[in-house]
Amino acid sequence: MDITLDFVHSGLQQCRYITTAKVETAVYLALALEKPLLIEGPAGVGKTEVAKVLATLLNTELVRLQCYEGLDEARALFEWNYQKQLLRIQAESADNTQKHGWPEVSHHIFAREYLLERPLLRAISAPRKVVLLIDEIDKADEEFEAFLLEVLSDFQVSVPELGTLSAVHKPAVILTSNRARELSEALKRRCLHLYIDFPSAEDEAHIVALKVPDLDERLRRQVARFVGGLRKLDIKKAPSIAETLDWARALVALGIKELDTPIIRRTLNIILKYEDDIRKAEGRVGDLLRTSQ
């Protein structure tokens, strides 16, 4: 497959991912240079979607590692299938015709067939190039981030019982961060960097048109402008693009043709998920509605 900037541009368009030249260039360079791409930005702007679209674009598998506090190597890399190993040991013990010593038994039970591949090892050992998504790396501990540096540097892992396992095909790696904490300079040095912010009202209206085609053109522009206004308020959680789409679908289901104050107040809970945020927004509905016309 010939990876060019035009290939990325047309592929993202075919996947209906509304993007910019900056995003397209970053994705292309990550593929061309075979370097991980770290995508930062607010929650809900489509960072994870880049990896999903890229897997579609390359016609390959998406391997996802969801990060969280306390994530360790065993959950990210590999574990031994202890139940299967135990059954093998019991079978060896019950077979009176074979008198294997522990060295020989251990050689068998620490074979590759007893290894449970977690996302990182699965991506490295895949028989073809895959897309590895390391989602919300900022939620993982700094210790795990340090471990990840080794994997991203050489695309190989060391299993004491099996030796070094290296990637046959380097995966295309996408890391995402909501900036819950600052990532280390060492990690950033190993990655290309991209920041994705919330889309403009025009771009968000375009996204709504693609995802919710039944919504009237004038109404989707109102929706995009109103949500954009909400994001400028001092609220705990700004509405994501997914929540904008949920609201648009709700308006279609309700048969709404134009936004007004009553319908906005009735449906604010679809786009705002905290009661304090809803109360703040309710006091500004009139102003936001005027600016969205």
Structure report:
By secondary structure, this protein is an alpha/beta fold. It has 3 domains: 5-71 and 118-195, P-loop containing nucleotide triphosphate hydrolases (Rossmann fold, 3-Layer(aba) Sandwich); 79-109, no CATH class; 201-292. It contains 15 helices and 9 strands. It has helices spanning 5-14, 21-33, 47-58, 73-76, 82-94, 102-109, 119-125, 142-154, 185-189, 201-211, 217-231, 241-253, 261-271, 275-282, 285-292, and strands spanning 37-40, 62-66, 78-80, 115-117, 131-135, 156-159, 163-166, 172-177, 192-195. It has a 5-stranded parallel β-sheet, sandwiched between helices. A two-stranded antiparallel sheet has the order 3-4. Helix 10 (201-211) packs across helix 12. The protein is elongated, with a radius of gyration of 24 Å. It starts with a helix and ends with a helix. The model has no long low-confidence stretch (mean pLDDT 88).
Task: Give a summary of the structure in a few sentences.
With 293 residues, the chain is α/β, with parallel strands linked by helices.
Features:
293 residues, alpha/beta, Rossmann fold, 3 domains, five-stranded parallel beta sheet, two-stranded antiparallel ribbon, 15 helices, 9 strands, 52% helix, 13% strand, elongated
Structural class: alpha/beta
Helix-strand pattern: HHEHEHEHHEHEHEEEHEHHHHHH
Say how many strands there are: 9
For CATH, the homologous superfamily of the largest domain is named as P-loop containing nucleotide triphosphate hydrolases
CATH topology of the largest domain: Rossmann fold
Low-confidence stretches: none
Total discrete domains: 3
- Structure annotation, total helices: 15
Task: Tell me the quaternary state.
Answer: single chain
The chain-level mean pLDDT equals 88
Query: Biggest sheet: strands, sense, closure?
Result: 5 strands, parallel
**Shape-level CATH architecture of the largest domain:** 3-Layer(aba) Sandwich
Tertiary shape: elongated
Distance between the termini: 47 Å
CATH class of the largest domain: Alpha Beta
Spatially, the strands of the biggest sheet line up as 2-5-8-1-9
Radius of gyration: 24 Å
Task: Kindly estimate the percentage of residues that lie in beta strands according to DSSP.
Answer: 5-15%
Helix coverage percent: 40-55%
